Amino acid sequence: MADVPPPTGSGPYRIALVCLGNICRSPMAHVVLDATLESAGLAGHVEVTSSGTGDWHVGQPMDDRAAAALIGGGYDGSAHRARHFDASWFDHDLLLVMDEDNLRDVLALGGGADRVRLFRDFDPVDPGSEVPDPYYGGEDRFREVLAMVERTSAALVAALQAARIGAGS
Q1: Which residues are catalytic?
Q2: N or C: which end of the chain has fewer CB within 10 A?
Q3: pLDDT tens-digit profile of 15-64?
């Protein structure tokens, strides 16, 4: 299992999730990770945000199919509004990107390479793989992404607990 980098300061541990448009993969991961942190008692100790490397969906809700997959899994993504990643996001403790293109785009902004990882570096089934973009697929593709996100979020929370993030505070 991958390790999480140490916190950069005091306060909540800050995780940023990044995909292309911030309407499918990263918002799904954001909602699921928030719920997983809540279940583990870490909600007040870890803060999650998400964004996209592209800016064309800023302010929009997540894709209807992503929202439907979340609802089917018992989650609520209705509060999500797409945001755009920029260099100011390098102040997060951990940046998790969904694929190699996102990784390249984030690293091209020039900061935080020691804190940038693929989201699925934490996946216990296929570590280091990409989260496929379901945008041009059907509902099955969104459910497949949800399953990846759920198991990876559980493993990420376990890694945060192993690093004692939120312990004793």
Answers
A1: 19, 25, 133
A2: C
A3: 999 999 999 999 999 999 999 999 999 999 999 999 999 999 999 999 99
